[in-house]
Design a protein that fits this description.
The protein is an alpha+beta fold. It is 45% helix and 17% strand.
């Protein structure tokens, strides 16, 4: 089969090769691991997990976005800087519209022609001419819309025309031109919003204020990505905790079933249907053995599993999927009752959620677009002033030259005038205003609906905390009842040696009750986290703050000098000062939204050890070889054990812009 384009691989750079080497890791853990493979645990706290995940990660991974299927939708730490550095739509690209431009040109022409009229040919019919044209121009557009032009045009004309005064003559011109718009295109506000050479509907890409607002929108989107990523990491941490607890409960139930099986086999030959009871115990053992295997390895069609959950957490932390250590959470979920001040929590959510800040910046951008669109409904009226000095001579410099003629001021010209352009009807301008008004109305409606949605989501999150805590109490009582049921079933079995089904059902019911209890603990912890996320305080509660990277010493000195120069000219520019765009930095320090109902000082955003959990039932099985590669979950972690994390915490995420809050829109 012939094709017009072969499939090829791109050449790898050195950076790609280094990254490929970093991907090298040990074989993944699975149920087929050899018995000699030992398990070494890395007991890690949630704060350490978040620190490693944020410091190692350049992409904000999320369960809803695939980095393979939709890489363009994945947020990264580079996004705000990319938006600001865009050469077309970024801040610097917009400021470049006001840069001074230097234009030069040099052309040489040789003309050889015959003319019909000897008079027009300057006394000859065959004209041979060498014409050199040199021009240089400086042009500058000010923030007020004023255009300044300084230019020089120098011409050398050498021909064989007998009527010429000189065989080769130099003609040089110096011009200074100023064009000031009075109506359309005039003013600091319009030029900072739309930029020079703007058109209705297309000026949003040229304005400095629009570009700066787009950067603030990108910063808010980045903060949203970080918040979602932190929430994802916490979910993965507690999912791994639950996977260990689930494995423990099924392993204890399996060992109890094995012990029952061993006891019944020892009673072979006794009356009472021993073979039937032994078969039932054997079936129970293999059912639980399958559940233990699923709880250890995990399944592709269902969440959970220690190995699968641990690999997911490692993926979020940007660690190799296997490095000889098995991550194991060393923190316990909070089981205290939490109460929230609804009015305060709602106020925090409406003021601190990055989604609301992003939409407010969008509304602010729409207001700027509407203000700029109204300028196009005015006629274009420009005042033009031009001053010109001419020089003529046989040479360019020296006595009697063209330059000397210019300095003597013998040939001075000037021009003053006005130009007006009025499109009859202003159809395009009025359409642009209408378009901007509709955009503003749309985004304001979205902002109001977002506020209602946030209030609803916050109410659901707070309600879920209450429900999850009630489930903890209910499942704890269920766990106690399951223990008593198993104890009673074992006592009955010791008496009549017949009711083995009650014992087997009790063993499985106890394991299910333990799973439900730990699942409710994790659900309560995640519900508390979700309240912080809905209130916009998740990052500050975890000690994560946004900030610009440190500036170099040269940049600090340059910024100080620039500030001093601006202070000197500020008094002269104040009458052209645009309206408020930003209301300043956003306070990222969170306040306590909730507090334990018992009056203690434990904050739901901190990670403290709860009261001791109920002890696990004692099954006391005989010595038996453990299942290969079965990990343990131990509550006893020495306080002085140092974590294996390379970093102890994270203070800031570095990116190009500090977080700011948009000015409250005018309704």
């Amino acid at each position: 089969m012939r094709t017009s384009l072969a499939i090829e691989n791109p050449a790898e750079t050195a950076a790609c090769r280094r990254h490929s080497e970093a991907l090298a890791s040990a074989a993944p853990r699975c149920l087929d691991d050899p018995e000699g493979r030992e398990t070494e645990y890395w007991d890690i706290s949630l704060a350490e997990v978040l620190a490693i995940a944020l410091q190692n990660g350049e992409t904000m991974k999320s369960a809803g976005v695939s980095v393979l299927a939709a890489p363009e939708s994945v947020g990264t730490v580079f996004d705000p800087a990319i938006t600001e550095a865009d050469p077309l739509f970024g801040v610097e690209g917009s400021l470049s519209e006001f840069d001074t431009t230097l234009t030069k040109s040099l052309t040489y022409n040789y003309n050889d022609r015959t003319v019909n009229n000897i008079t027009l040919g300057g006394g000859t019919r065959d004209i041979r001419q060498e014409l050199t044209n040199f021009s240089v121009e400086l042009s500058k557009t000010a923030a007020t819309g004023t255009q300044f032009n300084l230019r020089n045009i120098t011409i050398l004309d050498a021909s064989n025309q007998p009527g010429n005064l000189f065989g080769g003559a130099w003609d040089t011109i110096y011009e200074a031109e100023v064009r000031q718009p009075l109506l359309q295109g005039a003013g600091v506000d319009f030029n900072r919003i739309a930029g020079p050479n703007a058109q209705p509907g297309f000026f949003f890409s040229n304005g400095v204020l629009i570009a700066r607002t787009n950067t603030d929108i990108s910063t808010a989107e980045f903060e949203t990505d970080v918040k979602d990523f932190v929430s994802e990491v916490e979910d993965a941490y507690w999912d791994l905790y639950l996977a260990y607890r689930t494995l423990d409960s099924w392993r204890m139930a399996r060992e109890a079933a094995r012990q029952t099986w061993v006891d019944i086999k020892a009673q072979r030959g006794l009356p009472g249907g021993t073979a039937d009871r032994e078969a039932r115990a054997r079936v129970q053992y293999f059912v639980l053995q399958n559940l233990v295997q699923d709880a250890l390895s995990g399944r592709a069609d269902a969440p959970g599993g220690v190995y699968r959950s641990e690999r997911r957490l490692r993926r979020l932390m940007n660690l190799p999927h296997s490095d000889g250590l098995l991550l194991r959470p060393r923190e316990e979920p909070i089981d205290n009752s939490i109460e929230y001040d609804w009015d305060f929590a709602l106020s925090e959510a409406l003021s601190r959620r990055p989604e609301i800040r992003r939409q407010k910046w969008t509304v602010k951008r729409d207001e700027l677009l509407l203000e700029g669109s109204k300028n196009f409904t005015l006629p274009r009226l420009d005042i033009v002033g031009l001053s010109r000095a001419r020089g003529f001579g046989p040479t360019l410099a020296g006595d009697g030259s063209a330059a000397q003629d210019v300095m003597d001021g013998g040939h001075q010209e000037w021009q003053v005038g006005a130009e007006m352009t009025i499109p009859i009807g202003f159809r395009q301008a009025h359409a642009g205003v209408r378009y901007a008004e509709l955009q503003l109305m749309r985004d304001r409606a979205i902002l109001r609906d977002q506020e209602l949605q946030i209030a609803n989501d916050l109410a659901d999150a707070i309600s879920e905390v209450s429900r999850a805590h009630a489930a903890i109490r209910t499942n704890y009582n269920r766990l106690e009842a399951a223990r008593e049921r198993l104890t009673a079933a074992q006592e009955v079995y010791e008496v009549d040696k017949v009711s083995i089904d009650l014992v087997l059902d009790g063993q499985q019911a106890l394991a299910q009750a333990m799973n439900a209890y730990y699942a409710s603990l994790v659900a309560h912890e995640i519900a508390i986290k979700n309240v912080s996320a809905e209130a916009g305080t998740l990052l500050s509660d975890r000690g994560i703050y946004m900030g610009e990277g440190p500036w170099s010493h040269c940049a600090q000195v340059s910024a100080r000098e620039l500030e001093d120069r601006q202070r000197e000219t500020w008094a002269h520019c104040k009458e052209n000062e645009p309206g408020f765009i930003s209301s300043g930095r956003v306070s990222q320090f969170g306040a306590v939204l909730g507090f334990p109902a018992d009056g203690s000082n434990d904050h739901p955003g901190t990670f403290t050890q709860p009261p001791p959990m109920p002890s696990s039932p004692e099954f006391d099985p005989p010595a038996a070889p453990p299942t290969p590669a079965d990990p343990d979950f131990s509550d006893d972690v020495p306080d002085d054990e140092q974590p294996r994390a390379e970093h102890q915490g994270i203070d800031a995420i570095q990116f190009s812009q500090a977080v700011e809050d948009p000015f409250t829109p005018k309704w």
